Amino acid sequence: MKLITVEEHYDTDANIDQFNKYSQVPNNNPRQTQLKPDLVDFGRKVAYMDAHGIDMQVVSDAGNSAQVLPDQYAVDGAHAQNETLAENISQYPTRFAGLATLPANVPDKAAAELEYALTRLGLKGGIISGTVNGQFLDSPKFEPIFAAADKLRTTLYLHPGVITDQQKALLYDSPAFSDRTSTLMAGAMWGWHMEVGIQMMRIITAGLLEKYPHVKLASGHWGEFVPMFLERIDGFSPLVTDLPHSFSEYYKRQVYLSPSGMFTAPQMQLALTEMGADHIMWSEDFPYVQDGDTTRQFLEQAQLTDAQREAIAHGTAETVFDL
């Protein structure tokens, strides 16, 4: 079984230095320093893939990326990340594909960078992590990014990002537990993912997928809560929008899910029931998640037909990212 994983990550020494110097968004991953070799060194990635039966990774710079730098650094920083990513991929062209870092708070520049990355560097889509300085992507400000993705018929991966201090204070800080607890709850335990689910709901409700039917959106962590609420959302859709189709029709048409290392049978079955195998891809979230042989074995042993297994293992990803 050929295996492609699609939410896998990299970084560069230059971006790490720039992030530490200029970013106002905290890096709250306690393992970031020890993970640096697996983020930066593509040879180490290949060795890991070889050891655990992974044929290809679709890699991206997420969370601590140039996206969150001040505008005067974000445009050049994202461009440098994409150039370096393409250079690394060129050394292992059968093992990696890449998604472009986008300076999303400068939408015209982000749109131009997406087109450059796809047409000149051979990257396969773009990635946006969380809100953009607290702004959701349904704002008309960001429409140039969707217009470019639609023109290119490409995929935007909507990845979690560090939530704002205001969100954390309102939703997760509590006198009943420590700040460390609220930080984790606001982050990878819950908060990041809920925010990306809200991001998706706003994008579709605002009509962006109606206007841009050739955009594909990828969503990790089994859809960031949205699939389990599709019918509930549809029940309210006629009251909040006059779009010609229901929320779930847009979602099932243009959104593609992956587990991001959440190898859990109940969530997989829910996603499969709602979306079908042709809208599910596989992902480990390397190197933040390193499940080793489980990454392959879980899928091999899952209760799937052979056709479903092949689609989830590689077929859907090959279609979504033009591999």
Automatic annotation (TrEMBL):
Pfam families of this UniProt entry?
A: Amidohydro_2 (PF04909)
Keywords attached to this Swiss-Prot or TrEMBL record, sorted alphabetically, are:
Lyase
Name the domain of life this protein comes from.
Bacteria
Keyword Transmembrane helix attached: no
Q: Does the keyword Lyase apply?
A: yes
**Residue intervals of the Amidohydrolase-related domain:** 40-323
Q: Which InterPro entries match?
A: ACMSD, Amidohydro-rel, Metal_Hydrolase
Query: What name goes with this protein?
Result: Amidohydrolase family protein
